[in-house]
Every structure is written in structure tokens, then in C-alpha cells.
Design goal:
The protein has about 170 residues and is mainly alpha-helical. It has one domain (about 5-170). It has helices spanning about 5-15, 20-40, 55-80, 90-105, 110-120, 125-135, 135-160, and strands at about 40-45, 50. A two-stranded antiparallel sheet has the order 1-2. Strand 1 and strand 2 form a beta hairpin. Helix 3 runs parallel beside helix 7 (about 135-160) and helix 5 packs antiparallel against helix 6. The protein is globular. The chain starts with a helix and ends in an 8-residue tail after the last helix. About 30% of the residues are buried.
Length: about 170
Amino acid sequence: MSNKIMHTKIPGMIFRRPAYLAISVASFVLMFFIMLTANQILFLQPYPVLNLTDDTAPSFLLTLVIAVLTALVMPMTIFQFSTLKIKSKKAGTGLGGSLIGIISSICTGCGPVGISLISYLGVVGSTAVSFLDGYSIPIKIASIAILVATYFSLANGINSKCQININKCQ
């Protein structure tokens, strides 16, 4: 079976289980909400307002892609640990890639909270904030690349460990 078919059938096999589907939906909503709020695209006071302008559109779209990929990768990582009982050394790529992709995408959205926390570091903190603010779009693109690589790594790991014919799972 070609890898292209395998990579499209494995999520269907995992997301048929209601628990993994619930994890996926919860991780999407939580990630999307946190990132939109941190990137100052979604304001909650005095009432919810979505600030979607020409300046914030690229960040919004990248945030949406990151949230979708997170919702795809997180249940696959949990499936790999719980169902397949893969040892932590072999599953390190899935968990590590998931965490690096998620943390790097959230890090760019620190906004005023991050500025106030990093201001305690003085010049080093202001340099870090300046770097993160100036390169937030490339960092989000790198985060997407990490999450995509993690997805394919997880799919390959699940396929090699399962030793089943995925066509029978339809």
C-alpha cells in the first residue's frame, strides 16, 4: 500500500473512536481560543470581538492551520502511547514534535502578558520580545512544518506497529 493512502486512512481509523474525536475537538477549540486571545485577535472584554483586519489575517490563518494540525496530532500521539503501548524512546518523536510545534506557535503570541513577564529580564527580555514579535509569522510557519513532520512520523510509526491491513478498517 502506498504511503499516500496510509496517511489518509490512519486518522480515520483513530477518529472513529469517540474518545479520540473528543480529544481532537477539545484540543482544537482550546488551542484556537488561546492562540487567538494571546495574539490579540480575539478580545473578551467588554464583550467578545474578533479583530480580523488585513494586518491580522495572515496570523489568523496560520493560527487556524496550527490548531487543525494540533487537533490531528494530539489524538494520534495519545493513540500511539495508549493503544500501541510504544516505549517512550520510540514515541519521542511524536510527543516531542507535538510539544515543540505547539509551544513554538504559542510562544509568538505572548503579547502583553509575555512583554510584562519578560520585562523583568531587562535588555535581554526586550531583545527576546523584539525578536519574537518581528518573526512571529516565520516561527508559526516553522511550527506548521514541525507539526506536519510529526504527523507523518506518527502515521509511519502507527502503520509499522499495527501490522494490519488498513483497507479492512473501512
